[in-house]
Design brief:
Elements: H1 3-14, H2 22-40, H3 43-59, H4 70-89, H5 109-127, H6 131-141, H7 147-154, H8 158-178
Length: 181
């Protein structure tokens, strides 16, 4: 769905067709939870924040200006809610099982052996990145957001995002290819 099509759907929802909001929930729910999980590192908190973000977005839908895609606006809302939650709790989660939010796809034993080692190594390398670089790299690769969308969500200039992504890629390359760090 294009941004213009999203605008039309949002106008329809604002005019009373509230049941159409389910399109956005179905379309972005899984990705939003994963995005938030990458930030807060807790599955329950990620689900709670995602639900709160959808509710907040629905209540403020009339304020959506259409400058960016709905998903960018929604992710920004979720990021702000996550930041507030982390500031309130001042705690960090020790959860390392990133796959707990991904449905069980039952890979073959051979695929499992090959992928588990690689995923664990990648996870470890990504976890070693500075927090802002880690968030930017996850939004870019996992959430498939553009530099501009990441900049909007993280409230930083696009140039800063480019720098963070470049540095993160270099650090990951060093760790994953050369085994350094």
């Amino acid at each position: 769905m294009t941004i213009d099509q999203e605008k039309v759907l949002i106008e329809s929802i604002c005019e009373g067709a509230s049941e159409q909001y389910s399109y956005f929930v179905e379309r972005y729910h899984r990705g939003l939870i994963q995005h938030i999980f990458n930030f807060v590192r807790d599955g329950d908190d990620a689900e709670d924040i995602a639900q709160e973000a959808f509710i907040h977005a629905y209540k403020k839908l009339h304020q959506y200006d259409g400058k960016f895609a709905f998903s960018t606006w929604l992710y920004k809302i979720a990021d702000n809610l996550a930041k507030r939650m982390l500031a309130r709790s001042r705690r960090t989660s020790n959860i390392t099982n990133y796959e707990e939010l991904i449905p069980d796809s039952r890979p073959s034993a051979e695929e499992l052996v090959d992928s588990v080692i690689g995923k664990a190594h990648i996870r470890k390398a990504v976890d070693q990145l500075p927090a802002d670089q880690r968030r930017a790299i996850m939004m870019y690769y996992w959430d498939e957001l553009s530099y501009e969308e990441i900049a909007n969500i993280m409230e930083r200039p696009v140039g800063t995002i480019r720098t963070w992504l470049h540095r993160a890629k270099e650090q990951l390359r060093e760790e994953l290819v050369y085994g350094q760090n």
